[in-house]
Amino acid sequence: MIATIEKTITLEEFLQQPETKPAQEFINGIITTKPMPQGQHSRLQIKLSTVINQITESTKIAYAFPELRCSSTNRSIVPDVAVFLWGRIPRTEKGRIANRFDGFPDWSIEILSPDQSVLKVLDNLLFCSENGTNLGWLINPEDETIVVVFSDQKVKIYRDDDILPVLNKIELKLTVNDVFNWLNI
Q1: What is the pLDDT of residue 56?
Q2: DSSP code of 132?
Q3: Which of 13, 2, 23, 137 is nearest to 77 (CA)?
């Protein structure tokens, strides 16, 4: 069950609060706690981040961040994997990566947990696509499907040997079966 705390605060007030584990998200004045990741979720999250970063980091195309807080437009969410194109990664004056990411990722990946609402997660992905995210994945380990949200709000379900869409500059070819085969260890 996902805990919801009914409070009326602003996004800035929410961002001043200390981080929690599991992470909390802020959507239109309401704070919810994400479910604590379990085995399949954790495996898919680290594997996706690693595979993407092996392809994109050395060439400075993009970077995949696990559990990164992204905030803007009265929302502060924590996608399971947030992929930012290299030029969009916020930096400090010294050129280091910034701690605060004001904006949503280019590619947002969510892995559905057993007690998580599909509609809530899909709503976050659709909101992100309305606000600059080019691609969203909703991975459902239970039924082995991946729902993809495109930048134009088109939604498509991928299964089995379907090749998954990725950001244009990322040379990665994955099928739905490839992703779920990572659960066999």
Answers
A1: 98
A2: T
A3: 23
Token pair 């004056």: residue: 93
User: From its phi and psi, is residue 124 left (phi > 0), alpha (psi between -120 and 50) or beta?
Assistant: alpha
Domains and CATH numbers, the chain: 35-181 (3.90.1570.10)
Amino acid letter for position 15: L
Cis check for the bond before 105: say yes or no (omega within 30 of 0).
Answer: no
pLDDT tens readout for residues 124-170: 999 999 999 999 999 999 999 999 999 999 999 999 999 999 999 99
C-alpha to C-alpha distance for 93 and 154, rounded to whole angstroms: 38
Measured between alpha carbons, how far is 71 from 139 in angstroms, rounded to an integer? 22
Strands 30-33 and 70-72: unpaired
Q: Report pTM.
A: 0.90
Please provide the DSSP assignment of 13-42 as one string. HHHHSPP-SS-EEEETTEEEEPPPP-HHHH
Containing H/E element for 66?
Answer: strand 62-66
